[in-house]
Amino acid sequence: MRILACVAVAISMTAAGATLNLNTGQAPGTMGSFSDPVWSIAAGPTGTGMNTSGAAYIVENSYPRGDGLNQLWQTVGLPPTSMANFISSGDCGWDGYTADCPGGDYSFTTTFAVTDLATARLEFSVAGDNRVEVYLNGGPLLYGQGAMSGSSGWASMSPLQVVTSGFNLGPNTLELRVINDGGFTGGILAGTFTEAPEPGTMAVTGAGLALLALLRRKR
Fold first, then answer.
1. Which of 41, 43, 101, 178 could disulfide-link 128, Cβ–Cβ 3.0 to 4.6 Å?
2. What SS3 class is residue 139?
């Protein structure tokens, strides 16, 4: 039983290593705090309650504005299973509506490693208030696209973007840049990075599956 369990865990870890979840505001981060486990603040305007570095701030699902707009900013058509939430660089405009966020550019980044340029694949959708741009290693992937412009940029996610070029072997940087005209601000990204398993990894996985089958027959 222990051998079966160990082999199953090894195969599970190998399969899981092929996909990286890039969602903003995911667990184990908690809403209403600077705790995003994937995205960091790279730059942004200064102000009360605002950070210009460290983990991104995960925006609450609701906020007591008292004007009938509670949670509407969060409703962007994401399925409940996506587990992506808006991020910002501070609690301005949220959690009591104490102050508007400063206008300007807010930059959030995450890094991931690429080992195989031929199979590297990035997929994502985004939304932002007021506008959002996405860059890979400094090169634009999504810039001022239709629904992302104007004050309604947060109301719906962008079409799915599929990227198979522009990667570097080794570390890569993905940037979510939010342009705020004043008032509420934040950005959301739901996406993944994948690579096909290397031949050696596939061989190990195959051997593991064969071992599982053999052990089960002997039982």
1. 178
2. strand
